[in-house]
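for ur thesis appendix - Putative ABC transport system permease protein. copy paste whatever u need, i formatted it the way the template wanted (i think)
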Amino acid sequence: MNLFIIQGGFELGCIFTILSLGLFISFKILNIPDLTVDGSFTLGAAVSAMLTLAGHPFLGLAAALGCGGLAGAVTGILQTKLKVQYILSGILTMTGLYSINLRIMDKRPTISLFGFDSIFTPFNQLFGSAYAKTIVLFLLVVLIIVFMLLFLKTQSGLALRATGDNEVMVRASSINTDRMKILGLALANALVALSGAVFAQHQSFADLSSGIGMMVIGLASIIIGESLINRKPLLVRLISVAAGAIIYRYILTIALQFGIEASDLKLLSAILVTAAISIPSIQSAIAFRRRKGGRNHA
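the 3d part is after this line
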């Protein structure tokens, strides 16, 4: 691999880190399987693309955050107020977002941003055009990790974490768990939409199908990171998510170098997630057989 491929893999890894940090909130902190992700990623890309075309790339990021948060809040309201099952509520929101995203994109399946200024353009002179994207994306990831670290240690953040750990105990402490779930899902999907917004400006296009499989990518990143860095401190867990996302992206990059077609990457992602999830069970089964074999020989 040459430097250009390595640099590109790192940049996409940073973008997927933002996505994975959003999934970390819903899947790991709240223990909620949120399927809104595929729709909110495209939502962020669509909003960002349209505002970039209008000459407001930074406003596109802010709007993507707000729209993604709203989508997550809708899923949270379906779950808490209307008592819709977790998985079904995400599917309903994701389905509705397909039509919304298509309307945002002016009923065009793809929007090209080539020739338009992006969030990276002002930094070309400061960091050099060859490294502007890499540095900006890295700093953005650091900023988000710092924000999450600080927020999750606030009173609201601690209540959010406690809701995922023991909802019954939290309710007994007079904390509104429904509000915490809505807040958590809104924050999670805001980050997912932000990753979609950054992805669109990084790739210079927005596609209606760009969100397909993003949940698998996020889960793969989280699982890979946790398998490598299995420690409990919050900062370490957040860093492990970032490491997992970057490693995951390099795995796909290496796969492409070995001749695997881009159309097969979704299948490879599914296999990676399945393998990563199965490793603890396989290890437990092997250890059990060894102990059983030892007792038989005794």
